[in-house]
Amino acid sequence: SAPRVIIQILITGTQIFGKALFAAGAQAMKNAKHRPEALGSDVVDVGKATSGSLTDKLTREHRLTLDEAHMILNTKKEDSLERVLAHYEHLFKQNSPSEAATPTKPVAGKRAQVKYHSHYLQSKVFRARERIEAEHKLQSTSSEPVPPQTPESAPPNQ
């Protein structure tokens, strides 16, 4: 009864495959719902920016915290905007395709070195610069003194 054994093997194999497929689907659903809290990761803090402050609004808008932006550009919080822009220019040029496409002249006995570009790194550097500039603009506008309202410039009470 070889056909009976073959049919039993097929049925058993199908049951095992079905259970494995169901378990994989259940794990995929579990993974889709899980949001890991990585240690020391500033990306996790983007989701926590819910206080309604202007800084939190910038964090949500740029999807980047100020600390992460400084980390990407290798600057400190107390660095001037000019220094931040200098770091930005350097990192952006290092990852630009125009320079990366031209290999350096080969030296006798050595391979020609080709610089590679990374659009991903360029976009991270660009977003970090945008985030720091937005924070700097926020600080410069908030540090300006607000002129006192005179009775003529005050909005009418209703």
Distinctive features:
158 residues, mainly alpha, 7 helices, flat
Tell me the distance between the termini: 95 Å
The residue ranges in which pLDDT falls below 50 over 5 or more consecutive positions are: none
The share of residues in helices is 55-70%
Number of DSSP strand runs: 0
Report the C-alpha radius of gyration, rounded: 28 Å
Profile the largest sheet. Answer: none
Q: What is the element string, with H for helices and E for strands?
A: HHHHHHH
Number of discrete helical segments: 7
What does the average pLDDT come to?
A: 78
Shape descriptor reads flat
Strand content: under 5%
Protein structure class: mainly alpha
Description:
The longest helix has 32 residues, at 2-33. 62% of the residues lie in helices and 0% in strands. The model has no long low-confidence stretch (mean pLDDT 78). It is an all-alpha fold and 158 residues long. The chain is flat, with a radius of gyration of 28 Å. It has seven helices and no strands.
